[in-house]
Amino acid sequence: MSWTPSRADFDTYMLPTYAPQNVIPVRGEGSRLWDREGREFIDFAGGIAVNALGHCHPRLVEALKAQADKVWHLSNVYTNEPALRLARWLVEHTFADKVFLCSSGGEANEAAFKLVRRYAHDMHGEHKQKIISFRQAFHGRTFFTVSVGGQPKYSQGFGPVPGGIEHAEFNDLDSVRALIDDQTCAVVVEPIQGESGVRPADPEFLRGLRELCDQHQALLVFDEVQCGAGRTGSLYAYMEYGVVPDVLTTAKAIGGGFPLAAMLTTDEIGKVFVVGTHGSTYGGNALASAVGLAAMETIGSSEVLDGVASRHALFRRHLEALGERYGVFSQVRGKGLLIGAELAEPYAERGRDILEASIEEGLMLLVAGPGVLRFTPSLVITPAEIEEGMVRLDRALARIAG
């Protein structure tokens, strides 16, 4: 039976957890996509910071095809070469000694939160189980991760939330001092809060968290699911801040579009995760790991990382000019190619309208809540594609302003 799916079919067959745009892309190359009618779109969304090397990057396609003829999946009853190669690469290029591979950022954070509690339990006793996170944080969609995340809308209506979690104010070290004590097992923070509007941490704030954790024998967890893997222009954002966490979670860009994530930690902390304490059926999947290694080797090259700063400057220059022209942005912020443009009055609640106008003009972008436009394009998007995308955004904003 011949059948061409439509946007209306989403409402028929899929749970209504999303409200996707009407466009259905069917082909991508680099930072451009095409729908069934051949309409072209420039991609400033990057799959929400996933497609760090764009669509169908030749090196990733080659890695996928080569591994597809070998082994796809074994489960963790066995191991496989691609998983070991990826884990070794991550260890050699970060602070970590040990890696846990899984399939999503939520899984990586779930593993991290279980790890810090298990470590505190085994090293200090049952009383040390409090996790401090931050309001407006986002750490995933499992029940534990939405509870640690500081946005109640994601946990309300699902019954009692896990206990032992408290929320401080992001970039407010005094609010952490008021909560942290000898019962605290960990402080969990995004170096750049993405979901809540692309808000970078102040360097002194992260340094202060490191000091407080050391004083109270608590672990410091960096959630770099969105801001990691080259997004800021360093391999991981902690490298720019000069603050080394005890645990780091990474996903999105690490697979270049293939579902992949990892939790990184040290030998000392990782020793409490003995056989049977945690697991993932798909963790270390051979196909995902092969693609992930190709993605990280490419992202980690000086050619890619060194190019992020100039692309950031080009984005910022255009966004600030558009903000002045239409009075639409009150602030442009972020690091590297994780950029947020906060909408000024009277546009503050019209993020979705701008997305829809942009699609009509052939541009894909994101929001972070109703009041911030979010830009997470490929790290290798060309300057010409940035220029063309900004022309299309200009036309979209003219529609809204007009």
From TrEMBL:
In which residues is N(2)-acetyl-L-ornithine bound?
141, 280
Q: GO cellular component annotations, sorted alphabetically?
A: cytoplasm
Q: What is this protein called?
A: Acetylornithine aminotransferase
Q: Name one GO molecular function term.
A: identical protein binding
Cofactor dependence: pyridoxal 5'-phosphate
Subunit field text: Homodimer.
| Biological source species | Halotalea alkalilenta
Question: Where does the chain bind pyridoxal 5'-phosphate?
Answer: 138, 223-226, 281
Keyword list, A-Z: Amino-acid biosynthesis, Aminotransferase, Arginine biosynthesis, Cytoplasm, Pyridoxal phosphate, Transferase
Location in the cell reads:
Cytoplasm
**Catalysed reactions, semicolon-separated:** N(2)-acetyl-L-ornithine + 2-oxoglutarate = N-acetyl-L-glutamate 5-semialdehyde + L-glutamate
